[in-house]
TrEMBL record:
This is Diguanylate cyclase. Residues 397-542 form the GGDEF domain. It comes from the Bacteria. Keywords: Membrane, Nucleotidyltransferase, Transferase, Transmembrane, Transmembrane helix. Gene3D superfamilies: 3.30.70.270, CHASE domain. Its EC number is 2.7.7.65. GO terms for molecular function: diguanylate cyclase activity. It comes from Cyanobium gracile UHCC 0281. The keyword Cell wall biogenesis/degradation does not apply.
Length: 550
């Protein structure tokens, strides 16, 4: 009896031991699968965000020809609009409607409607309308200061009814993105909303719009006030979000066993949901930025998807452990290796992300600097000069602009070559940079033209600084081989020496004078200095300073 008891005890202990090992292995397996699942879902959600963003960006770029034509001919005929829109229209990215939405002042409403009706055809009864209170019918558009009607429509939906005449100004929510695109000068995406494809549309699918501003002349003005004055209208690109998901290069999440939910960030409704079954509570989110409008893309795994990631061994291994306990050690060793691999992959992703951030910063620096002189370029200068001018005018701080141009610079390139010309530009840029005070700003505007912003400097101090720069620039002796010495020195290489002078125009900031006008005054003064014999300094509104040729 004692031996049987010992045997029973051994059996119980052995059974409990292997049962414990089986339970531990089951827990470890589930943990590994869930970690792998979360990483996999994160990558898939990020890929979905990228594909959606890429698809919309390509669609907007395909409309450049249409927007360019509208910028020079806002009242082009409807057949011409249809032809241009059809050439750029893509049925693979969820784009369902292309609209031309001109801005019409209240005083021009009647003449505008009359001129459109004169085109005849489907435009013969054109009028401005908006949805009625019950949203199932339409009514004439109410009077308002500015109307933004849908003048022309090109759509994929085969319907005799369209949104032609719909006054979008009835909806402050829709107009918010349009005014933002006008003020920023770039396309702006709206939030998600029910798309009205034609009056009384019973379906109104969830979609969004990308508003592309169209400015008269085709050039985006540099200042906010000019953008507000020169806006001609907007090209509206309306998307059916569900079609966008079906037609873009995204996998079939429903067949994979993944639930997809897309919402505007921080706003739960309206939304698009593709359900593959009950969620297990394991999911991942990713952020897609569609022309400055953030979307949240969430993928939730169903049991079907989790099972697809499992191997057959994951289900049978706990039972195998009960029979063969020694397999536990091998499984733990393999599990440890998998964890190490996952950690290695994570570290590689962190390093890649750091490199991407570094590359992004380098690209931002390149976008605002001149690669030859390492000074700011026009864009970088304007980004920094406008706040300085505003601060100067607000706190009554003196500020001046120097516009500098190298005299007869073309002769340098023609006689000694472009490399010598590049050397001259670099040497002069170094002179400007080392001569600046703290708070001053120097930039190369293009070619041989430079501009310097002098903070805390009135006309007298600006003239002194400009004269010193003119004299120092004229004192530099340039060599065709690239060497630079003070005037009077002899090049050790025996090559030709030459000097380059500069002409300088000065403009002083005044109240209510914008940066463009201030630059224009400095440019005018520069041309006055040029016309007076070059190698001179001139102040806007004053005679040319009495400086002579070196």
């Amino acid at each position: 009896m004692a031996r049987e008891n010992r045997f029973l005890i051994v059996n119980v202990i052995t059974a409990l031991g292997f049962a414990t090992l089986a339970l531990v292995s089951h827990v470890v397996i589930n943990h590994r699968v869930q970690n792998s699942l979360r990483a996999n879902l994160g990558l898939k959600a990020a890929d979905a965000a990228f594909q959606l963003t890429q698809s919309v960006n390509e669609s907007v770029r395909s409309m450049r020809g249409l927007t360019a034509r509208l910028s020079v001919d806002p009242s082009l005929p409807y057949p011409t609009f249809t032809q241009l829109a059809s050439q750029s229209f893509s049925h693979q990215d969820g784009l369902i409607i292309v609209e031309w939405q001109p801005i019409v002042a209240a005083k021009d409403r009647q003449s505008f409607e009359h001129s459109v009706r004169k085109q005849g055809g489907r435009l013969s009864d054109f009028h401005l309308w908006e949805p009625a209170q019950d949203k199932d019918s339409s009514m004439p558009a109410r009077a308002r200061d500015l109307h933004v009607p849908v003048l022309y429509v090109y759509q994929s939906l085969s319907s005799s009814s369209t949104t032609m005449g719909l006054d979008l100004a009835f909806s402050p929510e829709r107009m918010e993105s349009k005014w933002r695109s006008r003020d920023e000068g770039d396309p702006v995406a709206s939030g998600l909303f029910p798309v009205i494809r034609f009056p009384g549309d019973p379906i109104q699918p969830v979609g969004f719009a990308v508003t592309v501003p169209v400015f008269r002349g085709g050039i985006i003005p540099g200042s906010l006030s000019k953008r507000q004055q020169q806006i001609a209208g907007f090209v509206g690109l309306i998307y059916d979000l569900k079609k966008l998901l079906i037609q873009s290069k995204l996998p079939d999440y429903e067949s994979l066993g993944l639930n997809l939910t897309i919402t505007q960030q921080a706003i739960s409704e309206p939304s698009i949901k593709i359900s593959a079954g009950p969620s297990t509570g394991i999911g991942a989110d990713s952020r897609a930025l569609i022309f400055d409008t953030p979307w949240n893309i969430r993928l939730d795994a169903t049991q079907k998807y989790i099972n697809s990631l499992k191997t057959p061994q994951d289900d049978i291994l706990p039972w195998v452990i009960v029979v063969v306990g020694v397999m536990v050690l091998g499984f733990l060793v393999a599990l440890e290796r998998n964890v190490e691999r996952l950690q290695s992959t994570r570290n590689a992703l962190i390093e890649s992300n750091a490199l991407l951030q570094k590359s992004e910063q380098s690209l931002k620096d390149l976008a605002v600097h001149d690669p030859l002189t390492n000074l700011f370029n026009r864009r970088g200068f304007l980004e920094r000069a406008m706040p300085e001018l505003i601060r100067s005018q607000r706190y009554d701080i003196p500020l001046a602009i120097l516009m500098l141009d190298l005299d007869h610079f073309k002769q340098v390139n023609d006689r000694w070559g472009h490399q010598a010309g590049d050397d001259v530009l670099q040497h002069v840029a170094q002179l400007f940079e080392t001569s600046m005070r703290s708070g001053d700003l120097a930039a190369r505007f293009g070619g041989e033209e430079f501009v310097i912003l002098l903070s805390h400097a009135g006309s007298k101090q600006a003239l002194q600084i400009a004269e010193r720069l003119r004299q120092n620039a004229a004192a530099i002796v340039h060599h065709a081989a690239g060497e630079v010495a003070l005037a009077g020195s002899v090049s050790s290489s025996g090559v030709s020496d030459f000097q380059v002078t500069v002409s300088i125009g000065i403009a002083v900031a005044e109240p209510n004078l914008g940066i463009d006008a201030l630059l224009a005054q400095a440019d005018t003064a520069l041309y006055a200095a040029k016309a007076s014999g070059r190698n001179r300094v001139a102040i806007a509104g004053d005679p040319v300073a009495p400086t002579s040729m070196a």
